[in-house]
Amino acid sequence: MTQAEKITVENGKMNVPNKPIIPFIEGDGTGPDIWAATKRVIEAAVDKAYNGEKQIEWKEIYAGQKSYDKSGEWLPDNTLNTINDYKIAIKGPLTTPVGGGIRSLNVALRQELDLFTCLRPVRYFSGVPSPVKNPEDVDMAIFRENTEDIYAGIEWQKGTDSVKKVIDFLQDEMGVDSIRFPETSGIGIKPVSEEGTKRLVRAAIDYALNEGRQNVTLVHKGNIMKFTEGSFKSWGYEVAEQEYGNKVFTWAEYDRIVEKDGKEAANKAQDEAVAAGKMIVKDAIADIFLQQILTRPKEFDVVATMNLNGDYISDALAAQVGGIGIAPGANINYDTGHAIFEATHGTAPKYAGMDKVNPSSMILSAVLMLEHLGWREAADLITKAMDTTIASKVVTYDFARMMEGAAEVKTSGFGDELIKNMD
Ligand SMILES: NC(=O)C1=CN([C@@H]2O[C@H](COP(=O)(O)OP(=O)(O)OC[C@H]3O[C@@H](n4cnc5c(N)ncnc54)[C@H](OP(=O)(O)O)[C@@H]3O)[C@@H](O)[C@H]2O)C=CC1
Ligand SMILES: O=C(O)CCC(=O)C(=O)O
Ligand SMILES: [Mg+2]
Q1: Is the model's pTM score more than 0.90?
Q2: Which residues form the Isopropylmalate dehydrogenase-like domain (predicted)?
């Protein structure tokens, strides 16, 4: 029997043994339902692809309610240390209360392990019911910065001594006179750094070039938040031009040519760059971008954006290809090789324990994990089974309610169906 071993990373190269130990967090709410189906599907695919030559040994680690009930801790050090040590993990969603209580454990995992990219690929599976006319036009990969922004949760509550101190400082020492209601305001801080932006944009450009994509769009609200979102745009263009100059043509370059030689010259330069096989790096302001991905999604391939924008954009795009039930994700540090794979959606608490929700988001996150491990044969088996199963209209409630002639199955039943359709 093959000995189970840790995945290691040496000189930036990941070594995956035939029997890697992979930690998992079951998650809160519907997490246990979707994890049970996901685990069975992964095991069946690996078994089928490698005839027992490869196998995953699962190692349960704890976070969220299950952890709190067990040890009184929401996110024990042991969980962080284990992921740090074993490099790759997969998790179900974890609850974050609104307006008080603990801060997001999901965000804490990303920050503590410095998983600076949240990669969320969004593509259409034929037959999935969608609210738009041409959902197949959506094929985008979102690179969401995962450690900074207003999402970092640096904020002070209204009426506390701390918020008073911050407001006094802003008014007395920084000359701020635009806090509309200082006595009743809470305050949040939005850190966005050059370092954080550049490593994220670098990851997005590398991905786009490797995947042969045509463009990367930097999405920001830099007209309003000039030194955070606006700087994200400038630093993004900087990294594109300084590090990928011979492989990309940027809209910053386009604008410089317009200024110097006019629009015709800029259009000509862009056409020549595209003809020479260069990839376009462009940008869009976040509000209009949300309209454009709906009206002309074909124009966007890879999206690089900040944390909060990325959160909104990923749920919005998921809706276009059939909803959050089929939206996978991965939190990755491309420098250290650490990664946690997780669905885009949350705990969907009203369905907890009902064996009802769609496990596809978590299963497709597992596909990303298998691809990350280099186990493409197993990943492809699952993706193909997903195609076949959806085409046969055997689906969970979320798709069944929008699909004519569907046979509704439970979470576990959808897992069974995928396993049956693996060939
Ligand atoms: N990474 C993570 O762990 C995340 C955690 N969360 C947390 O999850 C909790 C609940 O968040 P909430 O805003 O309700 O968002 P959720 O994503 O949990 O659920 C919202 C709705 O989306 C649909 N949905 C979600 N998951 C599925 C699925 N697997 N299959 C089919 N439909 C699904 C359901 O729609 P319908 O009602 O129409 O059937 C559900 O009611 C919060 O505490 C939040 O902070 C949120 C996002 C990510
Ligand atoms: O951490 C949470 O509870 C929400 C996170 C979230 O919505 C996301 O990462 O997409
Ligand atoms: Mg979200």
Answers
A1: yes
A2: 21-418
- Our answer on whether the CB atom of 307 is closer than 6 Å to any ligand 2 atom is no
Mutation choice for ligand 2 from 98, 104, 117, 142, CB with most ligand atoms inside 8 A:
104
- Nearest residue CA, atom 15 of ligand 1? 346
Tokens 């907890």 appear where?
Answer: 352
Give long-range contacts, CB 8 A cutoff, 24+ apart: 129-137. Answer: 129/322, 129/399, 129/402, 129/403, 130/320, 130/321, 130/322, 131/319, 131/320, 132/294, 132/320, 134/297, 135/320, 135/321, 135/322, 137/297, 137/298
- HEC profile of 47-68: HHHHCCCCCCEEEECCCCHHHH
**Residue at 2: amino acid letter:** T
Q: Is 130 in the pocket of ligand 2 (CB under 6 A)?
A: no
Cβ–Cβ < 8 Å for 342, 91: yes
Ligand nearest to the CA of 347: 1
Annotated catalytic residues are 151, 221, 287, 311
Q: Which ligand 1 atom is at minimum distance from the Cα of 350?
A: 41
Best CA proximity match to 363, nearest among 336, 338, 390: 390
Q: Whose CA is nearest to atom 36 of ligand 1?
A: 398
Q: Is the CB of 283 under 6 A from ligand 2?
A: no
74-82 contacts: CB < 8 A, separation 24 or more?
74/102, 74/105, 75/105, 75/108, 75/109, 79/25, 80/109, 80/112, 80/113, 82/23
